[in-house]
């Protein structure tokens, strides 16, 4: 993949436009741009981010992914994350359900690297990694993680302000030095055409498990189902633009004001379908011990939002670590007992009963 010329994203498929947010402007506190970010975060919960300044780190991370997937499967399997709900490590192809029926499995493989392991390297906090990851911990992965977190903190500060939370509230729930499920993920999806591709997505519909996702795509394949729609639309990759989205924890902390929207991955459209699809994400997740619940005591705006949605439960009684492990564990096809396993793998999407 690195260095290859890829065919353009086709013009004849349905796409959903996202607002383009300029990172330089939101960092500088530009009121208009901050308001556009707020609009994106509270409607679809997805936006493009330009001028993020992470291009070199992203390119190096894709190289790390390619080097890792070039290891033998036997070598990668030494680091497979297994069925117990552990998220860090390698995930081999075809071990996750993609729908409630359990008939279909995913068509992606990825390597997940913990923020805690990357920043503490060579100290091991959670797990060990393939040699290709270790070789790039300090010069590639840690710089990417730091920049992704810097971006996250800029966005969280804006959300504190808009949500009426005391300054620093959201950042303190995601402190860099505290242990968390934050991780960088590099994904590869091999071309799959015909019946198999049409029957099942490469990655089943889901909301993201943590707080904020920072995604870098070269090829199409990501699809969203915007609120009020019942069909999937592609998100067109734009060179140099990241795709950011709100995930479950921020939706819960904010009493549903921030939107964690459902999405999935299908084979790239048109001529792109013949190519390997690579994507890179940094998932910011809350400190493992934090309980996921609406911050009603800290903000009258959030308290009011919760009051207006009596049918929705914002008291999960669950820590961020438990939430993540439950979702990861119940997607694993080996753990499937029936449709209830799929139900147990869901996040905030099913709070709106029309959603999958
Ligand atoms: O690969 C993509 O475009 C999105 C991946 C994704 O949604 C995820 O890993 O949670
Ligand atoms: Fe996702």
From TrEMBL:
Domain of life from the UniProt record: Eukaryota
UniProt xrefs under Pfam families: 2OG-FeII_Oxy, DIOX_N
Keywords: Iron, Metal-binding, Oxidoreductase
Limits of the Fe2OG dioxygenase domain: 178-286
Biased composition (Basic and acidic residues): 347-356
A molecular function (GO) term: metal ion binding
SUPFAM superfamilies hit by this protein: Clavaminate synthase-like
Annotated protein name in UniProt: Clavaminate synthase-like protein
Species assigned in the record: Rhizopogon vinicolor AM-OR11-026
């Amino acid at each position: 993949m690195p260095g290859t010329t890829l065919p353009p994203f086709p013009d004849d498929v349905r796409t959903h436009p996202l607002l383009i947010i300029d990172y330089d402007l939101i960092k500088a506190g530009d009121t208009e741009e901050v308001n556009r970010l707020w609009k994106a975060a509270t409607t679809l919960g997805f936006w493009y981010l330009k001028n993020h300044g992470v291009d070199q780190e992203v390119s190096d991370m894709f190289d790390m992914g390619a080097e890792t997937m070039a290891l033998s499967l036997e070598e990668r399997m030494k680091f497979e994350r297994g069925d117990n709900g552990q998220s860090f490590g390698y995930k081999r192809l075809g071990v996750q359900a993609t729908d409630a029926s359990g008939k279909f499995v995913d068509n992606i493989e990825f390597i997940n690297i913990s923020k805690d392991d990357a920043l503490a390297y060579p100290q091991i906090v959670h797990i060990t990694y393939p040699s290709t990851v270790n070789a790039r911990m300090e010069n590639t992965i840690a710089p990417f993680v730091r920049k992704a977190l810097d971006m996250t903190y800029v966005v969280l500060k804006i959300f504190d302000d808009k949500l009426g939370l005391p300054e620093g509230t959201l950042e303190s729930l995601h402190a860099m030095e505290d242990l968390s499920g934050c991780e960088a993920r590099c994904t590869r999806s091999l071309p799959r055409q015909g019946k198999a591709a049409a029957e099942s997505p490469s990655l089943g519909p889901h909301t993201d498990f943590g707080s904020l996702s920072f995604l870098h795509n070269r090829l199409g394949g990501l699809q969203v189902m915007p609120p009020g729609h019942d069909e999937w639309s592609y998100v067109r990759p734009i060179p140099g633009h990241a795709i950011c989205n709100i995930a479950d924890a921020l939706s819960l902390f904010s009493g549903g004001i921030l939107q964690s929207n459902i999405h999935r991955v299908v084979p790239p459209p048109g001529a792109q379908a013949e190519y390997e699809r690579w994507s890179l994400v940094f998932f910011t997740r809350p400190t493992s011990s934090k309980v996921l619940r609406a911050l009603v005591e800290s903000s009258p705006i959030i308290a009011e939002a919760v009051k207006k949605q009596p049918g929705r439960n914002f008291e999960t009684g669950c820590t961020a670590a438990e939430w993540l492990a439950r979702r990861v564990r119940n997607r694993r096809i080996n753990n499937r007992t029936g449709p209830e396993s799929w139900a147990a793998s869901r996040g905030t999407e099913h709070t709106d009963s029309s959603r999958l």
